[in-house]
Design a protein that fits this description.
Structural class: alpha+beta
CATH architecture: Alpha-Beta Complex
Distance between the termini: 44 Å
Strand order of the largest sheet: 2-1-3-6-7
CATH superfamily: Creatinase/methionine aminopeptidase superfamily
Largest sheet: 5 strands, antiparallel
CATH topology: Creatine Amidinohydrolase
Helix content: 10-25%
Order of helices and strands: HEEEEEEE
């Protein structure tokens, strides 16, 4: 919707992410907000992508950055969290930084194998 010139709030962005995860059958395993604003100290003071914890109804605005980092956690098994950083420039939300990761890299294993 941002590309169509429509306002999107942090809560609405979180709800869109949450809907996709729920449709895949993992809604109960997504237990945190989708993302946060990014400022000079990593977590910024702008809108967070959150309809769960703080229900952030502030708009995602031009020339701001935010993370998109949904996660699914299967208790006793594993968790997966993926992060993209985005910026809103010229009325469009665009991925910033390096290309999106397209492979799984295990960083911690509690189970042998």
């Amino acid at each position: 919707r941002i590309g169509n010139g429509m306002m999107v709030t942090g809560a609405e962005a979180d709800q869109a992410s949450r809907r996709m995860i729920e449709q895949a059958g993992y809604g109960d395993q997504f237990v945190h907000r989708t993302g946060h604003s990014i400022g000079r100290e990593v977590h910024g003071t702008g809108a967070n992508l959150d309809s769960l914890e703080t229900r952030d109804h502030r708009a995602l605005i031009e020339r701001t950055c935010f993370s998109v980092e949904p996660g699914i956690y299967l208790p006793g098994r594993f968790g997966v969290r993926s992060e993209l950083d985005m910026a809103i420039e010229n009325g469009r939300a665009e991925i910033s930084g390096a290309p999106a990761q397209d492979e799984i890299i295990p960083i911690l294993s509690r189970f042998p194998g």
